[in-house]
Amino acid sequence: MIRLIIFFSFSFIISLSSIHAQDIEYAQELILEANRRELYKDEYWLKLIHYVQKRNGYEGEADNTQFYFSIEGKHSPQKEMESTILSFFQEDPSVNEDLQMQPQCAFPARFHYLSKKLSFDPERLRFRPCDKLRTWEKALDVESITVVFTSYYLSSPASMMGHTLFKLNSRKNKETELLDYGVNYAALTDETNPFLYAYNGLVGGYVGGFAIYPYYMKVNEYNDMESRDIWEYELNLEGEEINLFMLHLWELLWQAKFDYYFFSQNCSFHMMPLVELARPSLSLSENFGIVVTPPNTIKAYLSNKGLVRNIKYRPSLYSKIQQRLTEMQESERDIFYNLLDSKETTESLSDDLVRKDLILDTLLDSYRYKKMKNKYSDQDKLTYKKYLMERSRLEFPTYQIDETLAFSTRPEESHSLQMLGWGVGSSSLGNYSELKYRFVQHDLMNSDLGFVPNSDLIMGMFSLRYYASTNKLTNDKITLIRATSLNPYNKITGAFSYHIEISFDSVMYRKEYSQLQRDLILISQMDHSQTFTQIGLYSYSKSIEKESEPFKIYPFNLEGYMGRTYQNQYNSFWKDFSISFLGGAKLQPSGYFENSLRMGPGLLSYLTYSKNNFKLMVSSGVFYYQLSDNYNDFRNQIILRYNLNRDLEIRAEVSEQRYFKEALFSCVYHF
User: pLDDT of 137-181, one tens digit each?
Assistant: First the structure.
């Protein structure tokens, strides 16, 4: 009777009827021993249940009840350990049909840990064979584990910061590695609206979970369909470490669900504990703040000496095309593009000075690319078959391609995500000091290393200014979200450039005179000034002029533009330059404007030059607001940036807009 009272005091959710009476005594012995040694405080146990320290105790990151045996398990490591031990004595699923797997088999990493710590007696606790688990392990036959980084994909909010997954390298597939399996963590949703996806991802509106796929499916999705380069980082895990990894992976695949957060509990965040549990001496996730991104987790793996054994580059289909185009002579590229445009026939390949196989291989890959992008017409299908027949008549390639020539840079070369800038400047409103902060991630003037060149993705950026003339601290511009892609156009991709921004803009505004006020000012400037002074007209006109001096306002701003960027990617000099032209519209509601709104079409242009640590950008924008009865506006800017190191840069810039000019020198630090 005393034992039953003790048993119920643990608040176990499992009924006594599911455990044989003779097992209760041994279960209680194990629980008392675990509590005596305070195993529930052990770091490995806390990480195994994905607990995080909160102000008032612990909280489990898993958000589904199936992951916990105790009703208090999400917040009590002790109660969860007690209930877990008791669960190992439950009947097999064949006896109790409500259970899919006996807990020893559903949570083998927990069983392995507690068995090792408490030295389970197989005479008193029956060890289950776990046939499903053993069959799964045997089928995968994992020899090593690779962390895979897929480069940025600016067409999808879910992948704007890249993506990571695991590759399970099998002993069986050394010559056919695409037959290995990949492990992915992602939001479990079919949402196709990018704005809804981004919003729900920010606020934790989706459930996230692990899934396992044939690796070739992921390569096809990322490498081919989305044209994303892949970087593979093979981890130096062996033997028992791989076994521990696989045991916990089994638990996560079938039992765990997490709330998905775009900036924190994302694909990269929930992968790190698997590696930490495989090698307990690692502390990959401890140094992260509120933002966790794929590039930064790659840096974390590499920062642990000896953890990464090998790095491999897997170019996308488009990068393979680029590799071949880089190998071509200018005359060969001309023939290639003319054939792609159907401006020439294959007779142009008869010249002995051109490599026919190189041109045909590039053409065939280009048509495959168009097919992947759903830009494949019936005529393209016929042309592809024609080139395929032509290629079949040739021998093996007579050319050599540098397959290590990467058209994206490794993620670990990227700067840190958050930014703090300080600068001094002079403007039409006087001299000032500026402090700027950015939550994430990258702007057009940052170094392109580790990012898509000439792109930006900004969320949560604001600046404060102190003007010496007014002795006041004021806010300047607040950017909620900005995304820009100045992707070079060519005949293969047909790529568009775009710029989208939601912000509170910094705009110079001047109160305009009414017709009567303009007449009075004109009269006051005529002769007979003494008479005008006596009747107060002169002072009145001066007060009007003072009221009409330009001042800053901060209207809500919504703008979007599309266009094209041009770049000669194969010329050794001109490849560092690009020029962009975009057209779109801008909308700004404010009580200062006529009809409380100014809106209209706009044009943007960019000229960029980037070489080593230097980058120069000249940009211009014109905005036609007369459609909304407001004055037109413009904005011109020249910025020069120099990188001192990966995370530190200096900038000099001059800019102007209607009624306002300024020059600014600043230092920018990423952390």
Answer: 999 999 999 999 999 887 766 677 889 999 999 999 988 999 999
**Domain match, 479 and 537 both:** no
* pLDDT given for residue 17 in this prediction: 52
Count of structural domains within the chain: 5
The count of C-alpha atoms lying within 13 angstroms of the C-alpha of 350, restricted to the half-sphere facing its C-beta, is 5
Question: Nearest 5°: phi and psi at 139?
Answer: -65, -40
**Residues 6 or more apart in contact with residue 651 via CB below 8 angstroms:** 423, 445, 639, 640, 641, 642, 664, 665, 666, 667, 668
Q: Determine, yes or no, domain membership for 405.
A: no
Tokens of 99: 């259970």
| Alpha helices (runs of H) in 470-595, residue ranges in sequence order | 515-524, 529-534, 537-547
Which token pair is 15? Answer: 């009924």
Q: How far apart are CA 418 and CA 413, in angstroms?
A: 15
**pLDDT for position 398:** 80
**Among residues 247, 280, 314, which one ends one of the domains?**
314
440 and 533 together in one domain: no
What single letter denotes the amino acid at residue 51? Y
Please tell me the distance from the alpha carbon of residue 247 to that of residue 263, in angstroms, as a whole number.
Answer: 27
Of the chain, the end-to-end C-alpha distance in Å amounts to 61
Q: What is the pLDDT of residue 1?
A: 39
> What is the distance between the alpha carbons of residues 437 and 420, in angstroms, rounded to a whole number?
5
Write the CA distances from 420 to 439, 440, 612, 639, integer angstroms.
9, 11, 23, 18
φ and ψ at 311, to 5 degrees?
A: -125, 130
Q: Are residues 366 and 502 in the same domain?
A: no
Structure confidence at residue 519 (pLDDT): 58
637 phi, psi to nearest 5 deg: -155, 140
The whole-angstrom separation of Cα 72 and Cα 82 is: 11
Q: In 194-209, which positions are buried (b, 16+ CB within 10 angstroms) versus exposed (e)?
A: eeebbebbeebbbebb
The pLDDT of residue 50? 96
pLDDT at 307 (0 to 100): 97
**Integer Rg of the chain from CA:** 32
Give the residue from 668, 204, 161, 163 showing the smallest Cα distance to 457: 161
Helix (H, G, I), strand (E, B) or coil at 147: strand
Q: Three-class SS of residue 233?
A: strand
- How many Cα atoms occupy the beta-carbon half-sphere of 296 within 13 Å? 24
pTM above 0.85, yes or no: yes
> What are the φ/ψ torsions at residue 458 (nearest 5 degrees)?
-120, 130
CB 233 within 8 A of CB 298: yes
SS3 content of the chain, % helix, strand, coil (to 5): 35, 30, 35
Query: Is 380 strand, coil or helix?
Result: helix
Token code pair at residue 490? 């060519």
Question: How crowded is residue 157: how many other Cβ atoms within 10 Å of its Cβ?
Answer: 23
Structural domain range at position 226: 136-314
For 91, left (φ over 0), alpha (ψ -120 to 50), or beta?
Answer: beta
Looking at the fold, whether 217 and 255 belong to one and the same domain comes out as: yes
Q: What is residue 537's predicted lDDT score, i.e. its pLDDT?
A: 54
Paired tokens of 10: 């643990």
Q: Are 554 and 478 in contact (CB under 8 A)?
A: yes
Residues of the chain with pLDDT under 70: 1-21, 94-99, 156-158, 512-548
455-467/142-150 β-pairing: unpaired
